[in-house]
Structures are given as structure tokens and as C-alpha cells.
Amino acid sequence: MNSLLSKEKPGIREIWKKRPLIISGPCSAETEEQVMETARRVANTGQVHVMRAGIWKPRTRPGSFEGVGSQGLEWLRHAKQETGLLLAVEVAKASQVEEALRAGIDILWIGARTTVNPFSVQEVADALTGVDVPVLVKNPINPDIDLWTGAAERVAKAGIKNIGLIHRGFSSYGHTEYRNAPLWHLAIEMKRRNPDLPMINDPSHICGRRDILFKVAQKAIDLNYDGLMIESHIDPDRAWSDANQQITPEQLSSLLNRITWRREMAGSEELHRALEELRNQIDHLDDELMEILSQRMRIAEKIGEYKKANNITILQTSRWNEILNRAFNKAEDLGLSDEFIKKYFDAVHMESINHQTKIFHG
Ligand code: PEP
Ligand code: MN
What we know:
By secondary structure, the protein is of the alpha/beta class.
């Protein structure tokens, strides 16, 4: 493609509004050839708006590949010239912001290991003052949405108008299905608090492996996310970082083709009425559930009074096990998952304990 044609490609203003916004490219820029071939194959899918590539890599442990540094920006510039793809890179320091902007990078993102550190976020934000560039803020590695919000606020205070959020999952101890637990409810709550900020899902860093990327991407789309960031590499097994989770641009294309895309609200009056009717029923049931829970707490308080009068402990482990076992047995017939029942009863039990503690100590 010649440079005249690439100039006619949509610019960042237009691309920023695309829904779903699709960002893809390698975890890290490795060599000029790898960047160029990735860009060509990613552009060939015709489904990707922005190419990502890590230039400076914040690695959890020292000694792993830490990125090619500034020279990679030049490779990315060539890739953009040739393919017209817009570019996104991660920045963690003022000098990186300055270099990335000088190289014409279109979108900057703040990585999960940076969002946790207000000093670093503030340094990045200060370097962004007076600049007109979209910034994506990844969730912090720990499940703390105030830190995530704080990072977005620091960027907003620097005058950045186009801010987006990336949900990349949260570290947890021990081995799970995911590299980073999605904790969907935290991203949903973040979106509720910041309805104007686009929320992009990053299945690659949530999954850490290829076989469940589709499942997570589809779930994000079902939950009305505004876009996806998925790592792609020309030779995933030999990637210098995050090899297990990367897919080829062609595999990315078939993953995107398999997704059932959804609209937030379809048009017809009839559908609106049907949904409203069902939502009314839900509101009604939620009210009833809360009233019943309140009754349950009153009874727990009465039990608390007996316990206090007889000087016995609030927590009775055998009784707690009995409650849980009864609930698990019943839940199966009712079509409720064990996972939900455990969380629900943990919360109810904790609330009961709190009510009884008040009875004990006033
Ligand atoms: C990345 O996008 O390659 C990256 C390092 O991600 P995160 O900050 O989510 O770990
Ligand atoms: Mn990565």
C-alpha cells in the first residue's frame, strides 16, 4: 500500500469511537521483521483498528526480556506507514511518554504494574499535560478499583479527554484456570462508576493460555464491553514474552469471526416492553429477598440473645457446616451453582455474625 492511500485511512478520532474497538499485535516488539510481518498480517485481517506492541516491558522477575526499547518505535512507525494501522504502546515513565509521542504513537496505555503505583501514574500524567492523545488505563494487578479509578482520575486531571479502561484480570495466589482472575464484578462495578469511559477486555492476560481466549472474549462481548485487546504474534510459540497466550493474526481473525456480537439495546417497542416487564418482576423479587433477609437477621439476633445469656460462642462450626450442606443439596435441585451458594451463604453468615456481635457488645 502506498503512503497516499494510507493517509486516507481513518485517524485516531474516528477509530476511537469504533465499537467494538479491536486492538491486536504482539506482547512485545522483538525485531524489525517481526513487527513488519505482524503489522501486515494483522492489517490483512481487516478486523483490527489498532496495533499494539510492548516496547518497554515491565516484567515481574528480573532477567526476562525487558523490551527492545526506543529502536522499536522506529519499526512501529514503518509499520504504520505501510499498513495504516494506528499504534498503541505501554508507557510507565515520563521519558517513555515523550518518546512515544515523538514517534507518533496514537494511543498510550498504562500497564497493570504501573496502575498500582500512584507515583508512577502521576509521573505519566504530568508528562501528558497539554497533550491530546487517548490513554487506556489497565486495571491494577490487585483487585482494588479505587486504585484503578485513581489512575484514570490522574490522567483526566492532566487534561486527557479520551480515556479508556482495560480489564486484564487480577493476580491471585495459587493455580487457577486463569493467569489473572477476571473478577468480572469488579469491572462491571468500574463501568457503573465510570459510564462514559469505554471498557476494553484483554482476554490474553486474563487467560494466559490460548484455549480459553474465545470463551473470555465472548463473555466480554455478552457483557457489553466496548472492545477487545488480544495479543497476536507471527510465531506465537517462539514469542519472547507471553508465548503461551499469543495467537497468530489468522487465528485472531477466526476467533473474531466466531464471536456473536451483540447490541446493547435492540430497537423494537415490543422488546423494550417485554424487558421492562421482566425487570419489574426482578425488582419485585429483589425487594422480597431483602425483606426476607432482614427477617432472617432479626431471628439471628434472637439467637444471639440466647447465646449471650448462656455465655456460648457466636460461631458454631458444626451448625455452619450443617447450613452449608443443606444449602448445597437444595441448590442443585433449584439450578443454583455451588459457587454462588457458597458466596451467598458466606455473605449472609457474616452479616448474621455482625448482628450477633452487636447483641453481645451493644
Ligand atoms: C501487556 O499488555 O503486554 C502487559 C504487560 O500487560 P499487563 O500490564 O496487563 O500485565
Ligand atoms: Mn503480554
